[in-house]
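User: Can you predict the 3D structure for this chain?
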Amino acid sequence: MLKLKFVILWLCLLLLALGACGSSPSAPQQAAVGGGGNKPAWVDSVESVYKKTQYTAAVGFAGNREMAEKNAFANLVGYFGQSIMADQTIKETYSGAVKNGVTTGWTDDTHIENIIKSSASLETLAGADIKEVWHDTKNNVYYAAAVMEKSKAAAIYTEMVIANQNLIKNLVTMAPAVKNSLEGFSRYQFAAAVADINTSYSNVLKLIDALVPAGLVKGDEYRLEAQNIAKSIPVGITVKNDKAGRIQGAFAKALSNVGFRSGGNNSRYILNVNVTVSPVTLPNNTMKFARIELGADLTDTASKTVLVPFNFNSREGHTTDAEAENRAYAAAERKIGEEYKDLLNEYLSQLLPKK
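Assistant: Here is the predicted structure, written as structure tokens:
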């Protein structure tokens, strides 16, 4: 009886190791590790087991299982090459926007929104799994096979492309008054990022010999339209306590470098600039000093909100008060020329559409 109990216990432990005794049906499935014995055929020739007509596969190896699997996935991605790699900044913009709920409301239904969320959370190729792991116990090396089933991947990527196309369509559909605003600019800019992601997905489809959904548009087309929108948006500039229009001219040039027009009557966007210059006296110093303090707020008059604040202060000196003040204005001009364009571009690059 004791021997029988021992045999039953041993069998249950064996089944548990194989995932058939006491395992949860919701637990993630992991490829079993083969060890010792004869080397599996896929280690040296993955295509001998996973035929090209049905699969795309790659092998990775390392001193531990986790790294072997990571290397296998990396080699699988490498098989497709750079054509499926989206720019990291664009990928972060896309995934960050989806994570923060920006896309909610821009899609037609919950199903499409869920597809987009799945798309944004991808860390490797969709439809790719680690199918087999083998441990070479003699040399203590782990081998892993990363496998993508073409038909499964084709269905996933096709669905993601169509979902993103739906998102883009809703983003760029708007009235002319909305389009020719920073809101319109942001919608086209984000549409460009989504289109870039779609390009990488469509390249996967091409490489697994699957049909690409019709109507695909490159991100650069939306990006170009965003630039055209910027050119159509006039930004009014008002400067208090300017000197011969120097500060206004510096900001106008910076805006032009970004792509905006300056001036115009009743502009929605106003750059309100306030300049204060005051003398500074330093003990035991015969030099004359002037402190310049500048605050510039790019404001949306429709929403009465400050979009981009900019502040600067500096102390400049010379033998005369006039020249000290002149140098203070020159310092402000340099600062605007060096920093304002980049500040505005940074704001625009992070500007995401709000529903």
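The chain is about 45% helix and 20% strand. The first strand starts at residue 33 and ends at 35.
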